[in-house]
Amino acid sequence: MGRTVARLTASAALAALVLLLFALPALAAGEQIGTAIDRVTAWIRGILIALGILTFIIGAAFFMIEGTTGGQERGKTLMVAAVIGVLLGFLAGPIVDLAASFVR
């Protein structure tokens, strides 16, 4: 089961990298730096939310399927990490806006 999760994670990371490489011309098309930052923030938000939901589903599967205490704890840990990732995804825009307000 661990190898399957590792392969799935590596596949998702590779897909995200390829997607980002193809998106670079679209990110550079903005005339202002603010537009490019907004687009990068939107990409990061989408990736964090998608990976968070996927991780939550995997954690729930660990929690329900594995009968051992260690498996259930692993599932709980994955679910908590997924919730934190989704929250960071939703807060990506305000965090970048706050950082940009310090620079201005």
Tell me what you see in this structure.
With 104 residues, this protein is mainly α. The protein has one domain. The protein is built from four helices and no strands. It has helices at 2-28, 33-65, 69-90, 92-103. The longest helix has 33 residues, at 33-65. The protein is elongated. The protein starts with a helix and ends with a helix. The model has no long low-confidence stretch (mean pLDDT 78).
Summarize the SSE layout with pairings.
Blueprint: H1 2-28, H2 33-65, H3 69-90, H4 92-103
Helix pairs in contact: 1-2, 2-3
Characteristics of this structure?
elongated, 4 helices, 90% helix, 104 residues, mainly alpha
Mean pLDDT: 78
Structural class: mainly alpha
**Unreliable stretches, pLDDT < 50, 5 or more residues?**
none
Helix fraction? Answer: over 70%
Write down the Rg: 17 Å
Number of strands: 0
Number of helices: 4
Largest β sheet strand count, sense and barrel closure: none
Characterize the overall form: elongated
Secondary-structure element string: HHHH
Q: Cα distance, first to last residue? A: 49 Å
Return the domain count.
1
Strand content: under 5%
